[in-house]
Design a protein that fits this description.
By secondary structure, this protein is mainly α. The chain is built from eleven helices and two strands, in the order αααββαααααααα. It has a two-stranded antiparallel ribbon with strand order 1-2.
């Protein structure tokens, strides 16, 4: 690992460590199940699309790492992630709420029918070069489904259009409504063009992963 990539990985670990304090509050799955009313209107509808900052499918969060969900909600709460809708929702949550929601969604995808195990899909030469340039595997793990720290997201099988929007958001600067503050991700994405980010997003989306959208009724 060269000096730039070593620095990048160190930044990622530091960010993960700094955001992990929400996990000190123990989450309760059953309590989380009673707190998802604001989540299911977007994340509980298969194929549902958001329109900000551009049209894209909302991310699948069932089966995502609970530690990552907690870290993401805290980042929205603090304004480190600037999506207006997500920030307003996150600001209404207590640390216990965040821990409960994280615990619920981490196990939620596992209650759905398991997908068949697929063989690893090797990247083409161009994508392999981009992955090496961004040092993606050092955080997100092999096949992008087993992060090296649970505070990092699983991205295998995630919607490609969402992944592209998320990656581009780390490039945004001095914008009150768009952008994500993460030093490691900023270093990784700013060296790549949007076309290159799209190629990465398409590859990650095509991998077999644990993420799902599990349809949830509005009235239970």
């Amino acid at each position: 690992m060269n000096q730039t990539l070593t620095t990048l990985f160190a930044l990622a670990v530091a960010c993960a460590t700094a955001s992990s304090h929400a996990q000190e509050v123990k989450g309760d799955v059953q309590a989380g199940k009673q707190k998802i009313a604001m989540c299911i209107g977007c994340h509980g509808i298969a194929g549902y699309q958001a329109s900000f900052p551009e049209v894209h499918k909302v991310p699948m969060i069932s089966g995502q790492s609970g530690k990552y969900i907690a870290a993401a909600l805290l980042a929205y709460q603090k304004g480190e992630r600037k999506h207006p809708t997500m920030r307003s929702i996150a600001e209404s949550l207590s640390e216990q709420d965040i821990a409960d929601l994280a615990a619920y969604y981490e196990q939620h995808g596992k209650s759905a029918a398991e997908r068949p195990t697929a063989s690893a899909r090797e990247p083409g030469a161009r994508v392999a070069e981009l992955m090496q340039k961004g040092d993606c595997v050092s955080c997100h793990g092999a096949q992008f489904s087993k992060p090296t720290d649970p505070a990092f997201p699983k991205v295998a099988g995630q919607h490609a259009d969402y992944l592209l929007v998320a990656l581009k958001s780390y490039k945004a600067e001095k914008n009150a409504r768009i952008g994500r503050s993460n030093a490691a991700m900023a270093v990784a994405v700013k060296q790549l063009s949007n076309a290159e980010l799209k190629a990465l997003a398409n590859y990650m989306s095509g991998l077999e992963g644990e993420l799902r959208t599990v349809p949830q009724p509005l009235f239970r």
